[in-house]
Amino acid sequence: MSQTRKPSQTVAVLGTGKIGEALLSGMIRGGWAPADLLVTTRRQERADELRTRYGVEPLTNAEAAKRADILILACKPQDMERLLDELAPHITTERLVISAAAGITTSFIEERLTAGTPVIRVMPNTPVLVDEGMSVISGGSHATAAHLTHAEDIFGAVGKTLRVPETQQDACTALSGSGPAYFYFLVEAMTDAGILLGLPRDKAHDLIVQAAIGAAVMLRDSGEHPVKLRENVTSPAGTTINAIRELENHGVRAALIAALEAARDRSRELASGNSG
């Protein structure tokens, strides 16, 4: 997890669901004072819960837009247009608007706000809930390097960040945004295989999860190419090479590539407004 620094700006999280709360919690741990953080919610009981848990001030969307220097739009994509209509009269070009809504382009937001408003698009994935997220950051037409650094400070509180051109966001959605689901799918299948091989479900689960954690840490920390790490496990005429042969025979590599292409294509459709 990257180090954050306490900003001088006031930050408002608009739509404080699971991802929004994870950001809020991460920012406080990273050095933000609760007095510098504002939240908006739909329900009063949720507002009271956040105030009690974090010491932050719940406001209406309009009030947050008037007071905050940085606005993080953490609403659902289908609610974005309504939210922007509510915010637009109160947002000046001195504000920084960060969208964490999947599939919403910076141009979509810029067109609905005062001309020249800096907008940044961020795609976090669900491991931000455990401070191991990857947040992919793209600047809009008026976002400067300083604006991008602010976004990195905020989302770096809950994992790693990566800057990419916005044209690469759909590919990043396929790999990173949806990525955790592919691993859960693989763990589910391997757990079933463990049961078939005679292991109790809980033991199969524990073995696979620890193997996944260990493999991920080795990939991250060793600097070795994944092929090299795989070869280190693959003995001549051994168990691993027999398993890999079956994976290749069943086209698993090609299926993964096709799956990610399908996810990329659907991300493009959603960004273009085709929700059907």
From TrEMBL:
Please list the residue ranges annotated as the Pyrroline-5-carboxylate reductase catalytic N-terminal domain. Answer: 10-103
* Localization per Swiss-Prot or TrEMBL: Cytoplasm
Q: In which pathway does it act?
A: Amino-acid biosynthesis; L-proline biosynthesis; L-proline from L-glutamate 5-semialdehyde: step 1/1
- Example GO molecular function: pyrroline-5-carboxylate reductase activity
Q: Which parts of the sequence belong to the Pyrroline-5-carboxylate reductase dimerisation domain?
A: 166-270
- State the EC number(s): 1.5.1.2
> Which reactions is this enzyme annotated as catalysing?
L-proline + NADP(+) = (S)-1-pyrroline-5-carboxylate + NADPH + 2 H(+); L-proline + NAD(+) = (S)-1-pyrroline-5-carboxylate + NADH + 2 H(+)
What Gene Ontology terms for biological process does this UniProt record contain?
A: L-proline biosynthetic process
Q: What is this protein called?
A: Pyrroline-5-carboxylate reductase
Annotated gene: proC
